[in-house]
């Protein structure tokens, strides 16, 4: 956590800034010292047409119909980056109508034609990797290197589904009667409503839109109001790649209004959502009257289980990656670190040493590994969880408070002696706090790990092949990392069980979420 005095002053100074140039507000010279060269970022984005503040409806960039806007902040400095259109029911209905119309022609293209468009989009996303990464850091806060990594990861879904578009095979089934022939066709679901969160402003969109467009669906995307700029830039590149008007729309603003419009429309045949469990449940209920297909990727409560027979270095490195990526703000972040008795003290020491080396700061500063949390509410939640744990007997090894940088920076934290009566054992922390929980036997570990309504990701660290099989088979989770803390990839299915969600994203399985199966029975086939 090495932050120089100059950087601290600069971050404090940013709050006062505001030299407006179009809708992008620039930072002061003080701020530029800390390498957050917002002016050059904005100029580059503007010249490549990537700084968009309007919604995209039917291939046109539009203001909200009542000209309302919402402000997008840089969480590292609090400064306003842009004013974007604040849309609602009317704009969403128009976006749905344009998507519905576009579906007819887009779904009738050959898979090869759709594949070419997606491939061009992928190439453009990669060609603009740096600018998109800068945009992600600007509006979401994660370190630039991690943000550029997100662009590569996000783009990989477009590349993968450009390839997979050509492999949507049906079936011919041996018939039950000799004069029949039985076929299975896979066809696109129709118009898709995609609602996405702020923690991966690009990747959460591409892993929905990639398979949707590849299969022939058209989409209305609602990005998070906290991070709409990356979504709009990606949509601009989709237009440049040849995605036709209406096949991809982006609306943002009044989330409940946009959500209601998508959910009540009989023309929208599928809702795909990544976000909180509470909102996911509401959307699922609201999808019932029109019986939409629903995919939900909701909250997790990931255990990282370190057994006595683990390689200490592998366990430390893996748990560190699983816990602290994006400052702990991912649904697959380790939320509980379960450590076996025999290795507990050694692990606590080695892990805390590793956490101590994490560097907190502005995502544009070289060397930063931990950016700010998304907003003050997120920090307050973390503070409440930590206070609750300490009041019930947990002990802070390092961290445990807001960072001296101010704003929404929080110190990377390790807490020991955490038990199952503390809030952080039960609910998603979504911040840079690692609670260490002690266990005795393998059975205890499995019981504690499964004692939650969530079931997204789990991690285990052991050198025993037999133990790893026993444990990953017993874990009630959709994803399990064995001796590995970073497991997400476009080629593997991502998704949860229990209340962590429905459906899978990525891989060949992710395509099925956007396809309907049609069975065709050809009768009277013995006639000559
Ligand atoms: P998070 O806590 O990660 O922000 P949310 O579930 O609140 O998770 O938000 C995820 C996405 O869901 C965001 O795009 C947000 O605007 C959207 N959202 C929140 N409430 C609603 C709602 N009532 N209807 C539709 N979308 C919503």
Q: What does it look like?
A:
The chain has two domains: 48-298 and 505-513, Aldehyde Dehydrogenase, Chain A, domain 1 (3-Layer(aba) Sandwich); 302-489, Aldehyde Dehydrogenase, Chain A, domain 2 (3-Layer(aba) Sandwich), CATH 3.40.309.10. The chain is globular. The termini are far apart. Mean pLDDT is 93; it is low at 1-36. It has 528 residues and is of the alpha/beta class. The protein has 18 helices and 22 strands. The strands form six sheets. It has a seven-stranded mixed beta sheet with strand order 16-17-18-15-14-19-20, with helices on both faces. The protein has a six-stranded mixed beta sheet with strand order 11-10-9-12-13-21, sandwiched between helices. It binds adenosine-5'-diphosphate. The site of adenosine-5'-diphosphate has 14 residues, from helix 10 and helix 11. The site of adenosine-5'-diphosphate (ADP) has 14 residues, from helix 10 and helix 11.
* Helix proportion range: 40-55%
Q: Whole-Å distance between the termini?
A: 82 Å
Tell me which oligomeric state these chains represent: single chain
CATH class of the largest domain: Alpha Beta
Globally, the shape reads globular
Q: Any idea of the CATH topology of the largest domain?
A: Aldehyde Dehydrogenase, Chain A, domain 1
For the sheet with most strands, the description reads: 7 strands, mixed
Unreliable residue runs = 1-36
| Strand percent estimate | 15-25%
The count of helical stretches stands at: 18
Q: Structural class given helices, strands, pairing?
A: alpha/beta
- Alpha-carbon Rg, integer: 24 Å
User: Got a strand count?
Assistant: 22
Strand order of the largest sheet: 16-17-18-15-14-19-20
Number of separate structural domains = 2
Mean pLDDT: 93
Q: CATH homologous superfamily of the largest domain? A: Aldehyde Dehydrogenase, Chain A, domain 1
User: At CATH's second level, what is the architecture of the largest domain?
Assistant: 3-Layer(aba) Sandwich
Which ions, cofactors or small ligands are bound in this entry? adenosine-5'-diphosphate
């Amino acid at each position: 956590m090495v932050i120089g005095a100059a950087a601290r002053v600069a971050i404090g100074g940013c709050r006062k800034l505001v030299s407006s140039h179009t809708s992008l507000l620039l930072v002061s010279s003080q701020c530029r010292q800390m390498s957050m060269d917002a002016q050059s970022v904005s100029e580059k984005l503007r010249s490549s047409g990537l700084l968009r503040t309007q919604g995209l409806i039917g291939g046109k960039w539009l203001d909200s119909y009542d000209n309302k806007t919402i402000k997008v902040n840089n969480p590292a400095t609090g400064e306003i980056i842009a004013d974007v259109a604040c849309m609602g029911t009317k704009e969403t209905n128009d976006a749905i109508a344009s998507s519905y119309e576009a579906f007819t022609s887009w779904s009738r293209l050959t898979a090869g034609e759709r594949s070419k468009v997606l491939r061009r989009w992928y190439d453009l996303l990669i060609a603009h990797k740096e600018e998109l990464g800068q945009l992600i850091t600007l509006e979401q806060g994660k370190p630039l290197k991690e943000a550029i990594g997100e662009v590569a990861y996000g783009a990989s879904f477009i590349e993968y589904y450009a390839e997979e578009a050509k492999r949507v095979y049906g079936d011919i089934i041996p018939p039950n009667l000799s004069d029949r022939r039985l076929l299975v066709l896979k066809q696109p679901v129709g118009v898709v409503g995609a609602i996405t969160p702020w923690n991966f402003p690009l990747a959460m969109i591409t892993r929905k839109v990639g398979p949707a467009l590849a299969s022939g669906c058209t989409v209305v995307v609602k990005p998070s109001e906290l991070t709409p700029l990356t979504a709009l830039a990606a949509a601009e590149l989709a237009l440049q790649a040849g995605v036709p008007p209406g096949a991809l729309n982006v609306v943002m603003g009044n989330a409940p209004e946009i959500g209601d419009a998508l959910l009540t429309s009989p023309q929208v045949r599928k809702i795909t959502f990544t976000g909180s469990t509470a909102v996911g449940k509401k959307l699922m209920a609201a999808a019932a009257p029109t019986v939409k297909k629903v995919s939900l990727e909701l909250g997790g409560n990931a255990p990282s289980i370190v057994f006595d027979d683990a390689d200490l270095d592998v366990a430390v490195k893996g748990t560190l990656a699983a816990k602290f990526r994006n400052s702990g703000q991912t649904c697959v972040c380790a939320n509980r670190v379960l450590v076996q008795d025999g290795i507990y003290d050694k692990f606590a020491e080695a892990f805390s040493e590793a956490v101590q080396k994490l560097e907190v700061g502005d995502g544009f500063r070289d060397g930063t590994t931990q950016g700010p949390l998304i907003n003050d509410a997120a920090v307050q939640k973390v503070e409440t969880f930590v206070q609750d744990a300490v009041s019930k007997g947990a002990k802070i090894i390092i961290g445990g408070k807001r960072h001296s940088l101010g704003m929404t920076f929080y110190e990377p934290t390790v807490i020991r002696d955490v038990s199952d009566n503390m809030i952080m054992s039960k609910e998603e922390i979504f911040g840079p706090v690692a609670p260490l929980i002690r266990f005795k036997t393998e059975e205890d570990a499995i019981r504690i790990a499964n004692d939650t309504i969530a079931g997204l990701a789990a991690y285990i660290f052991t050198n025993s092949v037999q133990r790893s099989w026993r444990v990953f088979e017993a874990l009630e989770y959709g994803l399990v990392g064995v001796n590995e803390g970073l497991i997400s990839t476009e080629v593997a299915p991502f998704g949860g069980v229990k209340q962590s969600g429905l459906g899978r994203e990525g891989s060949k399985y992710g395509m099925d979420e956007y396809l309907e199966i049609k069975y065709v029975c050809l009768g009277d086939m013995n006639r000559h």
